[in-house]
Amino acid sequence: MSTNIRPQQIMWITAVLLLGRLVAVRSQFCETLYEDTWDALVETIEYSSGRATLCGFTISGDGCQGSGLGPYNVYFDVLVACEESFFESECIIDCPGRHFNVHPGASLTLDGLTLSNSRDTSVSVLEDAEFLAYNTKFERNWNKAGNGGAIRAAAGSKVSLYYSDFVNNRAPDGGAMYNLGTTEIEGSNFQHNDATNGNGGAVFSGQNSKLDVAASSFDSNMAIFYGPAIFDGSSIGSSSSSEKRNNIGCGNLSGGGIS
User: Fold this and answer.
1) What contacts 218, CB < 8 A, 6 or more positions away?
2) Cα dihedral angle (161, 163, 169, 171), rounded to 10 degrees?
3) pTM of the prediction?
4) How far is CA 244 from CA 80, 147, 191, 225, in A?
5) pLDDT score of 5 more than 90
6) Please, what sign has the CA dihedral across residues 218, 224, 225, 231?
7) In the chain, N or C: fewer CB atoms in 10 Å?
8) For 211-241, how does the pLDDT look when each residue is reduced to its tens digit (9 = 90+)?
């Protein structure tokens, strides 16, 4: 008994086999969460000894922080990178709690993630801690009671932001970022961020802090008082070489430390 296989069937079988091989190859470069939940993310980071390259995922709704876990507390050097997969091209944390606390002596590096909808500052960087974000998006993060909608950096901390986007973040001071440490920003975009009751629509940099900004854009940010793009209250001195337009408040840049 013979079976005739049509050319279309051969093409379909070949395509399925090829896709399977490609997915297998891709999986060698990124780790897939066993489910799109906060618990699975934390377990995967811990299992990878703090060096996690993840395939695309979206954590939101019921998948957010549960069981009293709260934010991920970083006590050692942690790197979380997103690798585009065939099924999801983004790594998205869309959760209302704080996403990360970086503790003294530790560092956190994020590469290619999206952090959104925190209502308690997305990333808090404590004294003597370091945070680096590369090609990462911070969107719709708010803090109604505290400062820094997306990032709050304590005195003595170090923050580096490269080629990242800050969109629609809000806080009383420092709609996107509240900086009391040393911060370097390069190639990043700040749009529609809002200091709802104070200064620094996009970035607030406080007394004795240091802020260097290069090749970045500030568009349509707002502050109730001063510095809708950047407010710098430092006497140390900071520099900014970036494009600023359509920002609403008293001066695009405000403060004694800006040069």
Assistant:
1) 190, 202, 228, 229, 230, 242, 243, 244, 245, 247, 252
2) 20
3) 0.84
4) 31, 22, 10, 17
5) no
6) negative
7) N
8) 999 999 999 999 999 999 999 987 555 556 6
